[in-house]
Amino acid sequence: MSIQIQRGKAITVDRRTRKTPMGQGLLRGLGVIWKHWSASFQKNDSYKKIQGTFTIEYPEERRQLPEAYRNMPILLYDEQSGHEFCTSCFQCERICPPQVIHMTQAKDPATGKPVPAVESFEIEYDACMSCGLCAEVCPFEAIKMDHTFELSTHDHPSLTVDKTALNRPTTYYAQIAPRMWEEVKENAYKKLAANMKRRSDLIGIAPQMQEQLREQLARAPQAEPAPEAVASASTTADDKAARLAAIRAANAAKRANSENGQAAQGDATQSADDKAARLAAIRAANAAKRAAQQAQASEAPETAPSESASPADDKAARLAAIRAANAAKRAAQQAQASEAPETAASESTSPADEKAARLAAIRAANAAKRAAAAAEKGQEE
Amino acid sequence: MLSTDELQINIGPQHPSTHGVFRLLTRLEGETIIELTPVFGYLHRNHEQLGEANSYLQNMPFTDRLDYFNSMANNHAYALAVEKLAGIEVPERAEYIRVIMVELTRILNHAGAIGFLFNDMGAWQTQLAFSMREREKILDLFEMVSGARMMCNYFRFGGVVRDLPPEFLPALQDLLEAMPAFIDELERLLSENEILLARTQNIGILPKELAISYSVTGPMLRASGIPYDIRKAEPYSIYDRFDFDIPIGSVGDVYDRFLVRIEEMRQSRRILLQALEQLPDATGSHINPKARQNVRPPVGDAYTRIESPKGELGFYLVSDGSTKPYRYKIRAPSFINLTPLGDLCRGHKIADVVVILGSIDIVLGEVDR
């Protein structure tokens, strides 16, 4: 048998058939072990050394992970504007080999058209195989691989994580992978700037940033706000949630206003609805304002004696204010909904609609009252 | 004279010395094996069928999980198959990076295989710890380039995911500097050890003819004395640019397989040194910029094979022109090298079975797929 081998030859390995005195091979092996044992008191810190301790006392000591290290996918948002890079293009969902990424696209509430932003984003961490393909295919640099690896938990369902848990600011990613971020940064921001133009209101804002952003919005002078909104927005209360609720209520009222205006104008019942909605909104705004004042009042004395009680009160007041705002919005929507059939001249349905709107308004007012009471209670405590 | 009966013993499916969930059905006469039937399939994961449901790129991370010791080699074989099917060219630099990764994998695999072989023999942990130390260094390098230690998922059609980071090459130089000391020490520690000689010499002899008829490949075939290496016989990638020798054995027993693996580590180091020397002159980047990852190859089929550390690893793909392979078949070296186990063990003592199995160097992830 002859086999031609290019650039090399076949070499027969040496089987060491020479006779050595019995036991010498064993002793030689023991010598190697002895050398390693005596060197094991030193640390092996270089690839050039083959002796010494090379283990790491893990929980106390940690390796410096390389930049490219990948564990689980995360989403990035820009902490300046609060906008998420993700535009829900579904590339990662499609490529994911174990199919663990699920997302829905955000829609403009006014027009119903899709917006380049993600509404919900879910990854099943428990089934993710950390292959990194999602981060690779993402054209907007929105999905990246995290370095955190200590994810074990007894609570299995908690490993299905949503957008709030996935979001990380770009500063975080720049910290774990500075070079890799530097490479793609410019491109990422360019694309984000283009997408931000197509997003309205709070769509595409990271949940972590929404509150902060609303506060900024509230502080900025508004272009053409409804009168009640100005009143509530200009309150100096530093309880941002209350303020937020007020803005929401005002917005709802505004929306109710404008929509009503567009609808058939001469209709008698329409104006009634309009009035009801507006009233509800005003009431809600007032309630929110009250809640804010209460919260402020309750906070003032408490900051000095009992610091621990204040966050709870604050929370309750905030919650109530938000509820009130929601109720007001609902009322506005009811009013809006009732208009649609009315423009088609079906008078019979209008009283019912009107009733519903009024009911909603009352509910909103009640909610606001409750909020005020809660705040008061908090103050007493 | 006492009359004795034959005894049937089931080793496995879960036995600490077998390399995974694997069952050996043995018939014994005293302690001597009369018949041994390997039974596998406990780790079947429907890999090939799954490959037909996935797109071409989606299969890449799954190939990591075949032979989880050699994810880079598996990636290489699969990438070559898709590139052949779709006619994608690979830049020179990418080829060098690929060769570096696959040769590192070979060193890693052989160091591990020797470590586990001696673990099976009863030399608990001593040798394995030394092997693991070197293996961990190589895994550090893999993590640096690919982001993962074992499931690298580093290769792409037309190249590799990302270029080598600047700290990679100095680390590799250091590693290669320490390599001869490690390999020599391995030999000094083991190859003249009387216990080892007694346990491995003339145990589990695989004659040339039998090896060929079982289509055994890799170090096992070479230990039987046949200088067959796909890197030489049918050079793929850029293996025709390197000087290296093929170590062969003369007897074909467990000891020869052990020595062949040690020598192959030296030859891999030679290839790595040459690749490092030639890498700066290589043209192109780490990936072909024209290569699309969501490939849609023309109708046809392709078979590519590489010399993976365990033997011939082949991927057979049939395309029907869609984004998913119509047929996805793997020729797994572990699986085919395992088939002569019954012949190897016949006539030996039951204690030798585990040593012979260890010398074949199987990974059940690849055997069962």
Can you put this structure into words, describing what you see?
The complex is a heterodimer of chains A (381) and B (369). The model of chain A is unreliable at 224-238, 259-272, 299-311 and 338-350 (pLDDT under 50). Chain A is elongated. Chain A is 53% helix and 9% strand. Among the domains of chain A are: 73-219, Alpha-Beta Plaits; 268-299 and 309-380. Chain A has helices at residues 24-39, 91-95, 133-137, 163-166, 170-176, 178-196, 207-219, 227-233, 240-262, 268-303, 309-343, 350-380, and strands at residues 10-12, 73-77, 101-107, 114-124, 143-145, 160-161, 167-169. In chain A, helix 8 (227-233) runs antiparallel to helix 9 (240-262), helix 10 packs antiparallel against helix 11 and helix 10 (268-303) runs parallel beside helix 12 (350-380). In chain A, strand 3 and strand 4 form a beta hairpin. Chain B is of the alpha+beta class and 369 residues long. In chain B, the strands form three sheets. Chain B has a three-stranded antiparallel β-sheet with strand order 1-2-3. A three-stranded antiparallel β-sheet of chain B has the order 7-8-9. In chain B, strand 4 (155-156) and strand 5 form a beta hairpin. Chains A and B meet through strand 1, helix 1 and helix 3 of A and helix 2, helix 5, helix 6, helix 7 and strand 6 of B.
